[in-house]
């Protein structure tokens, strides 16, 4: 069976009500990303950053996995697949997928800026919250901000080097290092497929356009022969 690497982006969760960066009127458009999604922004105003991520955490709690998440969860149980996501939500896990690689961290986790300890985040976080490991008031969301190195890159690159098929779902393909994954896969001899609302312009062997809740279940059904996908 093919070894598959799936990269998912914001488009996977958009139909669950979790907006993409470019949604007009969405949560991202009401904030300056340099103030809420950079280490410098956190240092300047940690309360503002926590308010932003508290709102996103509440939004995630009120969302539910959609048909695309469900299809990928089914695929993960039937095929040799590595699920890599740029999303910081937990909808793939709630759909039943396991072993998801969150290259940009997880909204449901907290990180100590002082000692690097990690733990499950409460629904609401504040600048004065003490780290459970070192007691420093240095807690932050365990997410990768602009200017920081994504998590698990060695695992991801190893999976791409070994892949027979690379599939990109719901991502613009404009932000590195994820934007380079299709080329890494191609150089390793993998076939490449994009499932997206519209083509990103990347060098894919095949592109299927449409909402994630339509194109992802259809692709999975064709792959594993599951009429319920």
From TrEMBL:
What EC designation does it have?
A: 2.3.1.286
Q: Which GO terms describe its molecular function?
A: histone deacetylase activity, NAD-dependent; NAD+ binding; protein-malonyllysine demalonylase activity; protein-succinyllysine desuccinylase activity; zinc ion binding
Main localization is: cytoplasm
Cellular-component GO terms for this entry: cytoplasm
Under catalytic activity, the entry for this protein gives: N(6)-acetyl-L-lysyl-[protein] + NAD(+) + H2O = 2''-O-acetyl-ADP-D-ribose + nicotinamide + L-lysyl-[protein]; N(6)-succinyl-L-lysyl-[protein] + NAD(+) + H2O = 2''-O-succinyl-ADP-D-ribose + nicotinamide + L-lysyl-[protein]
What's a Pfam family in this record?
A: SIR2
Q: Which UniProt keywords apply?
A: Cytoplasm, Hydrolase, Metal-binding, NAD, Transferase, Zinc
- What cofactor(s) does the depicted protein rely on? Zn(2+)
Q: Which residues bind Zn(2+)?
A: 112, 115, 131, 134
rRNA processing as a keyword of this entry, yes or no, is no
The Deacetylase sirtuin-type domain sits at 1-226
Q: Which residues bind substrate?
A: 53, 56
The text the record gives for the protein's domains is: 2 residues (Tyr-53 and Arg-56) present in a large hydrophobic pocket are probably involved in substrate specificity. They are important for desuccinylation activity, but dispensable for deacetylation activity.
The family assignment reads: Belongs to the sirtuin family. Class III subfamily.
The UniProt function text for this chain reads: NAD-dependent lysine deacetylase and desuccinylase that specifically removes acetyl and succinyl groups on target proteins. Modulates the activities of several proteins which are inactive in their acylated form.
Instruction: State the protein's name.
Output: NAD-dependent protein deacylase
